[in-house]
Specification:
electron transport; metal-binding; alpha/beta; LUD_dom; about 50% helix; 4Fe-4S; six-stranded parallel sheet; LutB/LldF family L-lactate oxidation iron-sulfur protein; 2 domains; Rossmann fold
């Protein structure tokens, strides 16, 4: 199941539990606030930011509309430069390919560059089942791995942890899997980063195989691109003898020149930097320089399903910057785990149903994990209209239940509304009846209906339902204009 934490409940249940965690909400509010401020500052420096967004969106859209041709060109360019190209239909096939490469070289451990797609397919678990240890080398990913945790943010997977919690994780777990944390470890960020650096160094120097993803894959040259901020990616991409890169097929861009707007949009939108400290590019293998054996796994895993959706396919433009998460009021309060996926937040709410299809209760809940405020679209560097896709996916969820033998309470409620609004006389009588109820409630100084019984409780537990007005619009019109309102 692509990108889903198995066994997670539907979003409303998971979010309800998250909202009760005050420490989590404090951590998220602080971290997303800092990232938003940094992004706003560097975006404000660019006079033609909107034009740059349009250019980035156009590059990705052109690439998707000619995806088959671009992928064939990419395979040819990679092969010509010494890389071995594999095609994987789904997570199981991609994992099998990586495991087979590891076994062919008799390695029992690999180092990894931060990669959403390898988390999506559950690669670490597949390697572990084959007796191969996979070490995350990104600082935040290391925190998540050592803590036996799950990522909760695209850019900062450990955003839900504070410094004190990270210190305890390092002290408790580092010694079990490698170099232990120093006895005098404090919770100062520089000290924590130093402990991680010492712990990872022996793994970098020892590993003979690395696994990466790619931010972009250039079709005309066969160049793969990884952008990161810590240097761990550069270590993984240069030191080991064997490199396997798992790349979603939507990461392709047609030409080298078309990387330009994307490499200007990504760092400002993600880390709030003018450019990433490390932008690594490699094209196949080079004798005597870097990995001598390079494998590229081009992964579908639901992407062609998403591409076939004329409204939803724009989600494949995503460059994984996480800007939509950092401005989303729902994500800031519920956190990433509530989405039950390695793709949380607004982009996860559309990407997971598009990749997996609707019909599963947990996945079907995701398009409703939004207030439709539109902040995500305004922040998206490649102009994905996430609210539009959310509404589109909600319609798919509803359509999927039209044939149910037992209709849902929501469907019954709308049928009742259709019956009432379908006849003006009927609606008028119901308005007068509700007016009586409204007057009674106001005499009792009540402005809401309170908690409704039965299925209605789910609605009123999360929002106030105002008491009906004492006077309907029709009655007001008749009283003030002296005549009946024309039907």
């Amino acid at each position: 199941m692509s990108g889903t934490f198995v066994g997670m409940p539907a979003f409303p249940v998971a979010a309800g539990k998250a909202l009760a965690d005050t420490q989590l909400r404090h951590n998220l509010a602080h971290a997303t606030g800092v990232i938003r401020a940094k992004r706003a500052a560097v975006v404000g420096e660019v006079d033609d930011w909107e034009e740059l967004r349009l250019a980035g969106a156009a590059v990705k859209e052109r690439a998707l509309l000619a995806l088959e041709d671009n992928l064939v060109r990419l395979e040819a360019a990679l092969t010509a430069r010494g890389a071995v190209v594999h095609w994987a239909r789904d997570a199981e096939e991609a994992n099998r390919i990586v495991v087979e490469v590891a076994r062919a070289h008799a390695v029992d451990e690999v180092v990894k560059v931060k990669s959403m797609v390898t988390q999506e397919i559950g690669l670490n678990e597949a390697l572990e089942a084959s007796g191969i240890a996979a070490w995350e080398t990104d600082l935040a990913e290391l925190i998540v791995q050592l803590g036996g945790d799950l990522p909760s943010h695209i850019l900062v997977p450990a955003i839900h942890r504070n410094r004190a919690e990270i210190r305890e994780i390092f002290r408790r777990r580092m010694g079990e899997v490698g170099r232990p944390a120093p006895d005098d470890l404090s919770d100062e960020p520089a000290v924590l980063a130093g402990a991680a650096r010492e712990h990872l160094r022996e793994k970098f120097l020892r590993a003979r195989m690395a696994v990466s993803g790619a931010n972009f894959a250039v079709a005309d040259s066969g160049t793969l691109v990884v952008v990161e901020s810590e240097g761990n990616g550069r270590m993984c991409l240069t030191l080991p003898e064997v490199l396997v890169s798992v790349v979603g097929i939507e990461k392709v861009v047609p030409t080298w020149a078309e990387l330009d707007p994307l490499l200007r949009l990504l760092p400002r939108s993600s880390t709030g930097e003018r450019m990433n400290p490390y932008t690594s590019m490699w094209t196949g293998s080079t004798p005597g320089d870097g990995p001598q054996e390079v494998h590229v796994v081009l992964l579908d895993n639901g992407r062609t399903r998403a591409l076939a959706d004329e409204v939803g396919r724009q989600a494949l433009r995503c460059i994984r910057c996480s800007a939509c998460l950092n401005v989303c009021p729902v994500y800031e309060r519920a956190g990433g785990h509530a989405y039950g996926s390695v793709y949380p937040g607004p982009i996860g709410a559309i990407l997971n149903p598009l990749l997996r299809g609707t019909g599963d209760a947990q996945t079907d809940s995701l398009p409703y994990a939004s207030s439709l405020c539109g902040a995500c679209f305004e922040a998206c560097p490649v102009r994905i209209d996430i609210p539009e896709v959310l509404v589109h996916l909600r319609s798919k969820v509803v359509d999927g239940h039209r044939a149910d033998r037992v209709p849902k309470p929501e469907a019954l409620a709308f049928r009742g509304a259709a019956w009432a609004f379908g006849d003006a006389g009927r609606l008028g009588r119901l308005e007068r009846l509700s007016g009586v109820a409204g007057r009674v409630l106001r005499r009792r100084r009540r402005t809401t209906l309170g908690r409704l019984p039965g299925p209605g409780a789910a609605w009123t537990d999360a929002r106030d339902l105002p008491a009906p007005p004492a006077e309907s619009f029709r009655d007001w019109w008749s009283r003030t204009r002296g005549g009946e309102l024309d039907d």
